[in-house]
Amino acid sequence: MSKLLEEFKEYLNRMKQYDHVCTLLYWDMKTAAPKLGQAAHVEAMTHFSSENFALATSEKMGEMLDGLSAQEEFEQLSDTWKFIVKNMKKDFDRDRRIPPELYKTFVQAQAESGNAWEEAKEASDFSLFAPHLQKMIDLTREMTSYTDPDKEIYDALLDQYEEGMDSATIDRLFEELKKELIPFVKAILARERSENRGQSENKAFSRYFDPDAQRKVQDMLLSYIGFRRDAGSVGETEHPFTLNFSSRDVRVTNHYYEHDPLSAIFSAIHEGGHGIFEQNVNPEYDNTRAGSCRYMGLHESQSRFYENILGRNKNFWLPIYDQLCSLLPQFKEIPLEDFYREINHVKNSLIRVNADEVTYCFHIILRYEMEKAILRDHVPVMELPALWNQKMEEYLQITPANDAEGILQDMHWSDGSFGYFPSYLLGSIYDGMFLDTLRQELGDVDALLKEGRIREITQWLNQKIHWYGSTRRPGEVISAVCGREISAEPLIRYFKEKYGEIYGISF
Ligand code: ZN
After folding, report:
1. How far is the CA of 360 from the centre of ligand 1 (A)?
2. Long-range contacts for 249-258 (Cβ within 8 Å, ≥24 apart)?
3. Ligand 1 centroid to 226 CA: how many Å?
4. Has this prediction a pTM greater than 0.70?
5. Helix (H) or strand (E) holding 416
6. Catalytic annotation on 271?
7. Beta strands in 229-303 (DSSP E)
8. What pLDDT, in 10s, does the model give residues 19-69?
9. I need a surface site. Which of 37, 203, 258, 474 has the fewest CB within 10 A?
């Protein structure tokens, strides 16, 4: 190892310690610290992350990256270190273009905007949030003009969350989905009306379910799908998420609702999918730019593969439904067939996070089109709620009664995460493609699930996708695993096969 590389690794190790503390503080803040303790945590986190940021953007760092990028040094590096150096240099050059004052203003505005969003949502009053949203839009424009001066703004933002993705590709994919799914969902809803199933709730799922028992169900599900407990633990938060220190320490969280057991069940499987991804990245990449998958669409493809493709398949439940019933005895009165219908009930609903997997697509397409309207077409902020409602009517034939269940429902825009939403649907589109390849390589997925061999599927995902961490960009993963260009066709075919059967409709 060259002297310079050795020095660089030591430097990264120092940065890692700050990062570790910040992650731990964040975890504690979300899972344990009381309300009055939050401020001190924020202060400590700001301290340690500033120290880390100073190291990451220092002259010293610049010199080392330049040195390692010089041809003679670079050629001696292993492929992994070539990847790390090349990408860290790219990030470094990009971050250094941001004026420090602007960065500070942005972070400050994020915090204020987040608070304003919470208040506005609580009061269901968009006008309280509007000036903050305007500020986040303006600051995002300004930031992007420094980070990506040569790129169109929305494409630059998409690329930040899903490297290599652009709006031309997403337009093609989402148009394909719209063309097929709009008539498809209409046919399903017409069938429901004719069967008089309607949109009513199934009361069996809204009785009281003991949160302690729900925690046990989460444990059972996590170990069933292959989330390792020697390298992973579980916490409780308002909104479920996954966080990782390294591949050896991955944390997932959940939220248990006393009158909605399905929420925690599917969050457990979803976050478990994120967690399994992180646990199975090549440990050699731990704490480097190569580890921990940083592509949101690809990450979401794994959580959604477990949650939807596997978890909403009837065969997933066959080997474990008895266990579920013994942990939550109320389920004993619910035949598996009813459970299956309930978890795949297609209905037009207002809230994205509660949507079924088919109409979920429209929730994302709507947000994607809104983001283009905001950033490309400069639609004034005060016109956005009406535009939102108009699109809800167009795609889902329902209109929110107020802003809280309309444009204010998600927090993403409050912290300036424009370009994030498409990741969710890209994840499902990738899933359609992964499912095709999985079937070719491992055979009938229904049969594997029915026989309780889900771990074989997990192993396949580990080897094909997880192991590579961030070293393969999403487009590269798709072509390596599926050998074809990205397309929404497999996802549409999956929907038609599955829901055609459930609703007795042929397409
Ligand atoms: Zn997720």
Report:
1. 13
2. 250/275, 250/278, 250/279, 251/27, 251/275, 252/222, 252/227, 253/30, 253/31, 254/218, 256/211, 256/214, 256/215, 258/208, 258/209, 258/210, 258/211
3. 17
4. yes
5. none
6. yes
7. 232-236, 242-246, 249-254
8. 999 999 999 999 999 989 988 998 898 889 889 988 999 999 999 999 999
9. 203
